[in-house]
Amino acid sequence: MPVQPSRKRPAKAGATPSVVPPAGLRADARHNRERILEAAREAYAAHGIDVPVTTIARRAGVGVATLYRRFPTRTALITEAFSEQLDSCVSALDDALLDPDPWRGLCTLIEKVCAMQATDRGFTAAFLSRFPDAVDFEDRRTHAEEGIARLVRRAQDSGQLRADFAPSDITLLLVANCGVAGASPEVAAAASRRLTGYLLQSFRAGSAAPLPPPAPLELNRIYQPPPGP
Amino acid sequence: MPVQPSRKRPAKAGATPSVVPPAGLRADARHNRERILEAAREAYAAHGIDVPVTTIARRAGVGVATLYRRFPTRTALITEAFSEQLDSCVSALDDALLDPDPWRGLCTLIEKVCAMQATDRGFTAAFLSRFPDAVDFEDRRTHAEEGIARLVRRAQDSGQLRADFAPSDITLLLVANCGVAGASPEVAAAASRRLTGYLLQSFRAGSAAPLPPPAPLELNRIYQPPPGP
Asked: Is A176's CB within 8 Å of B179's CB?
């Protein structure tokens, strides 16, 4: 069943009901909410999504009780903190699907998402982790998977993307790009551009040399935070 | 000044003197030492090198005092735990330099090291971290850097490696390959083979499309463990 690309975000069908929408909040509550989200984004970007909620509350200058009143679960906080970036990714994918040149669409998407990912440690973990109660994340991930599969097919049908390219190679690229995110933001950005440049060249049809088989990587399965010692 | 490849390991000029050589130990002390090293290797492979020394002592079934008697510093323990793998890497590099076909030498080296790295979280961190008092690590890293630079030059001179390939691209590849080490060992190994396959194809001379500039990655600078929250 083909999914139509759309430039409009779909309604957040599964938004966690516990996240109180800002419109219904008093000014000071809205202010606290924004401070918490900002502190969460900064902490996740620098340290990944395993930062304790208490640390985020302290950085936001609010009590833990206040944080939990706004975001009753850790998942609710993570989902909301990365909502904007996920929207950007979904937009970039929809744009790629609308590009009349499927290869250019694919390259542009990969470059955008990799650049975003390279400078934010938390983003990939948030996107690739499986949050059992984050229905909204799941929706967007499924949307992403279907869109990527179509984009890959289109680029292969047009003869620009090599025929042995597997949709899981997109995940492979994202995971490899994750590896460069450990450096300083400037180095990470440069390293990500270079890595993406190399990989796109080898994805292009014409590199006919045989490859090892695709890895069994699914977008929602690859990220496994290291278990505690 | 060219460095001659040698199949013999150089003497450990800077071995940390605090690491008591097994030969001078009584049987039970030697036994404890081996159990500690085994526990350390397992813990580092699964969780990276930030595992506390107390955890390793518990896993080895020895007291913390015993551990510190054998390995007075954390660095001494890490250096010793990864000594064998580092030797394998240096051997692989020496073999690559002796290969009459520089391109085949480079490919074999990359495949070997990436396979080793993909299934051991701790190894790359240990190799790429800078341990101020691990002189022996420094020696081997310097040896590695010089050897890699020669290998790259040889493969470029023979016309098989693209001319705009930078030695820092080897580090880029290792760092990207690190990213796949988060999955289960089987998935990580498959993903690493596929990633390496793609990258080697784009490293090969003939892929003449221009690339973004090399990233300022040095073998000894790239790994930055995430700062604590």
From this structure: yes
